[in-house]
From TrEMBL, chain A:
Residues 23-210 form the Pyruvate/ketoisovalerate oxidoreductase catalytic domain. Residues 520-583 form the Pyruvate:ferredoxin oxidoreductase core domain. Pfam families: PFOR_II, POR, POR_N. GO terms for biological process: response to oxidative stress. It comes from the Bacteria. Keywords: Oxidoreductase. It comes from Nocardioides alpinus. GO terms for molecular function: magnesium ion binding; oxidoreductase activity, acting on the aldehyde or oxo group of donors. Transmembrane segments: none annotated. Residues 260-475 form the Pyruvate flavodoxin/ferredoxin oxidoreductase pyrimidine binding domain. This is 2-oxoglutarate ferredoxin oxidoreductase subunit alpha.
Automatic annotation (TrEMBL), chain B:
Pfam families: TPP_enzyme_C. Keywords: Oxidoreductase. InterPro entries: 2-oxoacid:Fd_oxidoreductase, THDP-binding, TPP_enzyme_TPP-bd. It comes from Nocardioides alpinus. Transmembrane segments: none annotated. This is 2-oxoacid:ferredoxin oxidoreductase subunit beta.
Amino acid sequence: MTHTAKQVKQLDRVIIRFAGDSGDGMQLTGDRFTQETAAFGNDLVTLPNFPAEIRAPQGTLPGVSSFQVHFADHDILTAGDAPDVLVAMNPAALRANLGDLPKGATIIVDTHDFTARNLTKAGYSENPLDGDTLAEYALHTVDLTGMTVEAVKEFGLSRKDASRAKNMFALGLLSWMYGRPTESTHAFLAKRFAKVPDIRDANIAAFKAGWNFGETTETFIVRYEIKPAPMAPGTYRNITGNLALSYGLIAGGVQSGLSVFLGSYPITPASDILHELSKHKGFGVTTFQAEDEIAGVGAAIGASFAGQLGVTSTSGPGVALKSEAVGLAVMTELPLIVVDVQRGGPSTGLPTKTEQADLLQAMFGRNGEAPVPIVAPQSPGDCFDAAVEAVRIAITYRTPVMILSDGYLANGSEPWRIPILDELPAIDPHFATEKNYGSGDGAEFWPYLRDDATLARPWAIPGTPGLEHRIGGLEKGDGHGNISYDPANHDFMVRTRQAKVDRIADSLPPLEVDDPDGEAKVLVLGWGSTYGPIGAGVRRVRKAGYRVAQAHLRHLNPFPNDLGDILRRYDKVLVPEMNLGQLSLLLRGKYLVDVVGYNEVRGLPLKAAVLADVIGGLVAEAEGIEVDLTTKESSDD
Amino acid sequence: MTELGIPALRSGTEDVPTTDLKQTGKDFTSDQEVRWCPGCGDYAVLKAVQSFLPDLGLRRENIVFVSGIGCSSRFPYYLDTYGMHSIHGRAPTIATGIATAREDLSVWVVTGDGDALSIGGNHLIHTLRRNVNMTILLFNNRIYGLTKGQYSPTSETGKVTKSTPMGSLDHPFNPVSLALGAEATFVARTIDSDRKHLTGVLAAAAAHRGTSLVEIYQNCPIFNDGAFDAIKNPDTKADALIPLVHGEPVTFGARDDEGRGDKALVRDEQTGGVKIVATADVDASDIVVHDAHNDDPTMAFAISRLTDAGYLNTSPIGIFRQVERSTYDDAAREQVAVAKNGDAADRAARLTALIGGGDTWTVL
Ligand code: SF4
């Protein structure tokens, strides 16, 4: 291969967005670029964004699907606020994404689809590639489709099939531009299309042609180099949140020695957990695709009663349907994992977009006093640890536990250091085998006689002789567990169930507060997937020379024991959330601390730059100083 | 062969551990005070079940009763087995989890007409089509008892109740027709007050592998007294009840010396269903011979349609259908077993391999 002399430019970070029609394979393209980037050793964060419709009308704005990947030579936290590079496969993709681009951004456009008809569909009255509307950008117009068809003509595919390989041409071009290793994509294509050799060969040929085009054309004169990022020693892989969560549930089963039983009903964006777990029956995992959300959780409760680890996975609308059954699990005090991959609400809302507005539903969305522990992962890889922690709590305390993931974590990905299993907690289901009340012939089994330390009740599974007992949704008498309508007993049991959940806090480590010199007056407290943008916002503020502390909650119920003291140590506490202030409400109610919310519900992750401004404003107020966040250095998010 | 003429197929309790200890009804009676209204049909069913369970010879700790909400759903509290009194309509879902998790348990669901057919209708039909190994006892009193007397999905149209002072507007379900439509593999009907028939049906239901649906006509003397008088009254019941016995011609009414009733079922050419005729008017070979094992549920459905939707003057009872079909829980366990087989290594080692799979890279 001959090399035209190309300039090589060093960069510390790049944000690329691939955008096209939902039938153009942009998710696959983004995913492959991500895998190549992970293999290269950059740190990375991804943000897929796609319509709820399987195939929205072709060429229209609602049909645009995109995949953003941010990669760097250092540790990064978000998928990036604004893309440096946009690859637009048609007019709609250009139009839908242009508004997010900063001036000077690179735009690579497939000119093939810029026909009068497609321009109209996208709402353009004139071709934006003509004239100077895009003058502020570095625009590259390339007939990607035409060149793809040319490159694959030897395989004798129909024109339609041939042009479908254009996403691989684009991937090849970008892979060249950023010096990505290509072996994994070759291997991937060979495997994926193993059964259709023509398509396989065409895709590989298009991918290579894209690379070679970059190398030979005059259109692109610069290649970029982003060095690998230093990372802690270990073996890494790239992982999405739903995959990490599925692995975490299997790990919870292995650590506890229990078989996992998933009862679930398909729902976006949680279905991939059902898909993934159904592949791992070899671990003793049973997956039951139920007739509805309620049957999914009901079967999981049944499995738990029978001595397995009952799990149900869903999104917000499904949690609403399951709430009565979760209340039953609270009353019967059986282990149960409820995974809520949150999406935009209310009602059907925005099925493929992210939000954090189910916190109060998880906390209070049941009749009666029905406390349920809540854990939340903060990044895609962290979904693994959150799942293991949820299993630990559910089994140790005999209680349903809610895992609050979200659409961004579910589909987003990051490099993940593969955990060593020995480092995970051992979880002991500690089944009851003996009668526990009285002695000799009069000995009985009391299903609600509690452990002194955890207040957990004994878990006696069917098949255990002598421990036959009945549980159910009616109020139980303390200890013996028979139905009781006694007012004092009810008061006692309500308080005891709450006390049991509160007591989980005793098993939690102190909340980590990142406050480098301990002098900050402003604390930013978050939960869930806002970890990345908050961390990036905090970095920007610190880089500009100001002090700010950051803490992130894994446990939303109960809160860590030291949270109140920590909140009171700071003059201002900022709580950014993708809802209208649900954690803020809980904090104010519990600690009487006047936290300040920053709230957005746009279906998208928060932006680091916006958060930096908000934090800067609070720092200015708290310290009585002027805050100027403009720095010459590039930001680190 | 059971008394009702059904030969036993692969047993529903085959994998459940048995005991040699002599059991009596008392062993299955819990220490909880039974709290139904005096005269409630539930008492008779409870007694029948308590005295029937020892016949199964199963270990008591391997029996699980699950119920929903309603008067009958208190049932598990009165039996000294494992049990769960769950939430309204959802007992079949919980039982599905139990039955799928454990092949060594005998799983029973106790439910009512409101619980199973109204709030829980969806779960009932899906459990039946999946054929999860459990026995569902559907106590049909054709009224809401626990909430004090509203019409139910089996109440006759026009029923005047607290919630329908001008008469109910709904057309009722026929639970047997519904179950057959849902492709149930075992569907039977019996009566609270006929201990012998009830016990025979229970034995066949427990022996059946798959979901057995047993509709039990149960009188609620408080809110719907007399709903079943025509089929219980010694003077009228011979003409009201159409007993189904596998392999026998279906006749009822006044019996002759050979035990043949003066009424019979024959095919109705006009409707494609069955109709009631005077036995004397037809050739003996034209009388429908009951075949519960017929894979095609058409005839069973036709017979189920003879049940009155209004006041119950006519009703077939017995086992409408019993066919063999693979059960969901057996198949689900089989998939797990097959998947496990290929993996000899211990779970932890395999998990390490799983999470470390895919494209990885190592940082030193
Ligand atoms: S209301 Fe009717 S069904 Fe309920 S316990 Fe009383 S008699 Fe029985």
